[in-house]
Each structure stands twice: as C-alpha cells, then as structure tokens.
Amino acid sequence: MTVRIGLTGPIGCGKSTVARWLAEEGAVVIDADAIARAVVEPGQPAFDAVVARFGPSIVAVGGSLDRAALGRIVFGDPAGLRDLETIVHPAVRPRIVEAVAAAEAAGARAVVIEAIKLVEAGYARECHEVWLVECPSAVAAERLVGRGMDAVDARQRIDAQGDGLADRLASALVGVPYRRIDTGGSQAATRAAVVTAFREALGAH
After folding, report:
1. What are the backbone dihedrals phi and psi of residue 79, each rounded to the nearest 5 degrees, phi first?
2. 10: helix, coil or strand?
C-alpha cells in the first residue's frame, strides 16, 4: 500500500524543505506548485487564458509569464486570485492524478502531494493524512526576504492567505488524520520531528 500524505501550509513556512526531507526518507514528492508553473508556460492553454484575463503587462520580454508582475496583481486582489486559481487548478489536477498513479504503480511506499491549495483543490480528501507546515508570520516574512523577495511583496502574500489556516483546515478535514509541523525552531529539531512523524504515518496506514 502507498501512503498518501498531503503537505500544505502558508508561504515561507518551509513546505519545500519538509518535502525534501521526506524525499530523503524515501517518499515520492509531487510538487503542485511546480506543476502549476509548467501549465502556464507559453504554448499551454492555461498561459493564453491567464494572459487574456490579466493582460499583456504580465508577459515578460522573452514571452513567458512575468510571475512577479502577476503576483503583485493577484495578491492584492482576492477576485483576481480566485480567477487565476480557476484557470490553473483544472490544468494541474490531471497531472497530479497521473503522477500519484505512476508512483503507486511503481510500488512507492509513500507519496507526498505538496500544495498550498491542498484542501481547496480537492487533494486533501484523497490523502491518508494531511500535514500543515506552519511558523510565525514574522519568521515566514524574514525567510521570503532572505530569498530575495521585496518586503512589501512578502507581507502582501502572507496577508493574502489570511489568519486561522489551521482552524480552517481542521474543520475541513473532519475524518482525515491531521498533523501540525512547526518549523519555527531549529532546523535539526524540525527535521527530527518530520522524520518521526513520517515513520509514524507509515506505521499507521
């Protein structure tokens, strides 16, 4: 049996780092954000739909999406963000379903679906358990700025996700085992907690 783990959490809290640790433990990681970037490459139907919705100002000189420009628009406009998700999510889902099926067919012990919109896109209910990666918003903002993001953009993206994500997830995931992974401490302690949780998940399903 392949254990399916949904991995989600606010931007800047370390989902990708946790996913990398899980991959090192033998899990197959499916990165929904990477797939979302792929489906809006030039030549893809979603690219044309995004440009039609948001205009030519989001197209970079080389013809690809200017993601920073698009981010400044949608993270300051909830309706625009919903429109973007309505375009992108239907293109992403079939690729995730295909990747999960391929991993299971290959006999993977565990598959991790890493996605900010894990619940909203309907992936959470298909998982054996869901992990929420979280940290204080000030820590998340500091990490984003450390990656080169403008401080104003970092705060805008964090604020766009709103507070109370843990409570919303808990209410949406009744009946689905649910773990909270706090990445606000040292990396060594966090990694140890992740490895322990992973081994518990494997033993529970």
Report:
1. -65, -40
2. coil
